[in-house]
Amino acid sequence: MKLKFLPILMLLGAPFFGSAQQRNCGTMEHHQQLLQQDPAMQSRLNQIEAQTRQFERLPNSEKITGVVYTIPVVVHVVYNGTAQNISDAQIQSQIDVLNKDFRLLNPDNVNVPSIFAGLKSDVEINFCLAKQDPTGLPTTGITRTSTTVTAFGTNDAVKSAATGGKAAWNSAKYLNMWCCAIGGGILGYAQFPGGAAATDGVVMDYQYFGLSGSAAAPYNLGRTATHEVGHWLNLRHIWGDATCGSDLVTDTPTHNAANYGCPAAGHKSTCTGTPVEMTMNYMDYTDDACMYMFSAGQTTRMRALFATGGSRAGFLTATGCNTSTSCGLPSGLLASSITNTSATLGWTAVSGATSYSIQYRPSTSTTFTTVTSATNSYSLTGLTLGTAYVFQVSATCASGSSAYSSQGTFTTTGGTVTCGTPATPTSSAVSATGATINWVAVAGASSYNIRYKTSAATTYLTTTSTSTSVAITGLTAATSYVFNVQAVCSGTAGAFSSQGSFTTSSGTTTYCASKGTSQTDEWIDRVSLSNLTRTSTADAGYIYSTTTTANVTAGTAYALGYSAGFRSGYTATEFWRIYIDYNKNGVFTDAGETVVSRSSASASNLSSTITIPTTAKNGVTRMRVSMKWNSAQTSSCETFSYGEVEDYNINISGGVAREGADAMVVEEEIQANGLNIYPNPASDKITIRRNEIGWMNGASVLLVDMQGKVWMKEAISENDSNRESLEMNTNNLPNGLYNMVIFSGSERVSKKIVILHP
Ligand SMILES: [Zn+2]
User: Fold this and answer.
1) Is residue 324 part of a domain?
2) Which residues constitute the domain of residue 349?
3) Do both 107 and 232 map to the same domain?
4) Are 668 and 462 in contact (CB under 8 A)?
């Protein structure tokens, strides 16, 4: 038995130990998770297996040999720090390895020993980095997403923006490859054909991707991806994931177990007949330098997927490798060098564009003026002073023109503009701690100042909005508030409107009832999260246990434990739904608030990994654990027959603070300085604007997170004499709460900003 020669540290799963780390593929672990979560999956796998058997029985002449399939690939780089943001060149080096290995063009295939030389096989599959995206627009086939997640594990969190990752492109037409930090010593994992479309693809740890840069020996020859793409094309591990197991391929020898490192030639199996093992097969666990072949039987198994009725036959009509004939949409619109009568418009150049059409108008007009430019900028002259303008750009390529982009805005300097007074504003969505204030737009307004206070108070709290409503939070329950609104046109505020009023509701958040009516056969017998562990009997179908509050930190992953209790001698399939009211609004139905959804017939302790979102509100909120017999819960408010529901308190820290008095004081200072910072929350950009020429000369603007990490820093030149506004591109910032700090001369102002990508 070879394993006894391995250093002890490796047996303990030490993630890094020079070249001695053992190959570890997460595919089967991931596969078992999927089978547990999706009871219908096994029958889909059976169908694929039956179709594969049928294909294998065809005469060779009907197996369509000689036709090379080309698979469009999109690589989603999800990185935490620059080291993980691997280069385009490194990604291309991985695609090049796949194109050698799947075409038997890898030079090391000459090392295949003579007993297997007749079996080494050209799979006749090529891979390309996608040239057009699912909407037909040009692409590099690479997406890049910054994340705060430090290790994604094998639970598919990397495949959704809600969990810090990036959603798949249409997996029927693209091979999605995610490159991220997986952790736990896992090099990569893949989803076999037959799983859910949203998670279909291959996940690779950035340390084992491609040939250079971050790739670490002995897994620096790109073979981890060859192995994982083999799984994606329905290949099993060559030892069948069992002692002398079957890999469902007839021409590979039976292996007794996985091989590691670089086995000596002629290494024999201990299985019946002691065959020589095919340790150089990509589906073994040997080092990159010691695997260099697929067998003919494996090729047949992979190519069955592309035959009529095969589960990847849709790739035969995929167009992702074709050069896009569409013209990209211009983005990054920005106006600069703004004077009383002129401005320079700029935007990000579109690949393949030969010219651009620009249309612009005063924001109060309905008629555009259209001009063209051969480059990605244009100087407008003859404008009206003190006037807000909007503009948008369309690119023209050989194949035609794009649509017009979303609008950019700017306001010429000089002049005086008087702003209308809004009609009396109204309120909606009044809760114990917040309300939404609404008003009718004022012509020419670029933003609005909103002020509000309790009826008894003498000073107002203020906020701003660029739309015609604003949600205010941090209010006191059962209290009367008054509010009014003024419009801001070209940086000058008009008069405040008449007052509106509302009264907040009483402070206790009530949650809907939910319970099981019978606990004869089953109940929840254990729940654990962080410092909370509670074991119990049936609790009469529902309990709100406040004995222990679970303390958790936003942005952190936790093991959430839960377990079914059964009457003696009985088990049944139980459906688990666990909800957390992360935004504290009294319901469990908001996006991301269902944290566990699965079924299991196990009586032992089950566990799911949850990550508290950075956008969760701080403070105590509710977690609901629901266990229902035999069928899925229809809602978080369901009363069902067999099972139990348990509610708990969890206390979140490090999330989004509710806007309290401190933030509002700073807000008042900002208003007194005539400074607008909007929108808030922001997604793709933040605009900082102040109607005072030269105010920003030499200013510095920092965006700092709550841990003090500086994410963005903008310094404005002393000589930038016409500067009134600054736009910061926040596309790549993770969701969460930030402090914006502005230094200008002796002034220092700060404002809390929430980044929330939809
Ligand atoms: Zn594997």
Assistant:
1) no
2) 331-411
3) yes
4) yes
Residues 13 and 86 in one domain: yes
d(CA 211, CA 128): 17
Nearest to 552 by CA among 434, 475, 648: 648
Apex CA 8: angle with CA 7 and CA 13, to 5°?
Answer: 100
Residue 738 · residue 701 · CB < 8 Å: no
- 10's enclosing H/E stretch is helix 8-11
Q: Determine the distance separating the centroid of ligand 1 and the alpha carbon of 596, expressed in angstroms.
A: 27
How is residue 467 written in tokens?
């739309």
Query: Considering 285, 317, 349, which residue would you say is the last residue of a domain?
Result: 317
Please, which pLDDT band fits residue 10 given cuts at 50, 70 and 90?
very low
Q: Taking residues 493-505, report their average pLDDT.
A: 88
Q: Would you state the pLDDT for residue 711?
A: 80
139 and 277 assigned to the same domain: yes
Q: How far is the CA of 26 from the centre of ligand 1 (A)?
A: 7
Dist. CA 284 → ligand 1 center (Å)? 8
580 CA → ligand 1 middle, Å: 35
Q: How far is CA 502 from the centre of its chain?
A: 38
Domain's final residue, options 369, 385, 411: 411
CA 314 vs CA 56, 70, 139, 308: distances in Å: 20, 12, 21, 10
- Based on the fold, state whether residues 124 and 192 are members of the same structural domain: yes
Rounded to the nearest 10 degrees, the angle between the axes of helix 223-232 and helix 88-101 is 60
Residue 326 lies in a domain: no
**Distance of CA 260 from the midpoint of ligand 1 (Å):** 13
Q: Is residue 322 a part of any domain in this protein?
A: no
Tokens of 239: 């030892």
Q: How confident is the model at residue 718 (pLDDT cuts 50, 70, 90)?
A: low
Residue 368 φ/ψ region, left for φ over 0, alpha for ψ in the -120 to 50 degree band, beta for the rest: beta
Q: What is the C-alpha to C-alpha distance for residues 472 and 424, in angstroms, rounded to an integer?
A: 17
Radius of gyration, alpha carbons of the chain: 31
Q: How far is the CA of 285 from the centre of ligand 1 (A)?
A: 8
What is the predicted pLDDT for the residue at 707? 66
What is the C-alpha to C-alpha distance for residues 486 and 536, in angstroms, rounded to an integer?
57
**How many domains would you assign to the chain?**
5
Q: Can you read off the two tokens belonging to residue 443?
A: 């012509």
Ligand 1 centroid to Cα of residue 8, in Å, is 23
pLDDT over threshold 60, residue 307: yes
Give Cα separations from 639 to 150, 499, 521 (angstroms). 39, 45, 17
Residues 101, 179, single domain; the answer is: yes
Residue 190 sits in the same domain as residue 237: yes
How close is the Cα of 88 to the center of ligand 1, in Å? 25
We report the CATH number of the domain holding residue 246 as 3.40.390.10
Each residue's pLDDT tens digit, 199-226: 999 999 999 999 966 667 899 999 999 9
pLDDT at 739: 81
Q: Hey, which residues are catalytic here?
A: 228
pLDDT of residue 166: 97
Q: How many CB atoms lie within 10 A of CB 115?
A: 13
Other Cβ atoms less than 10 A from the Cβ of 630: the count is 14
Tokens of 165: 């990752």
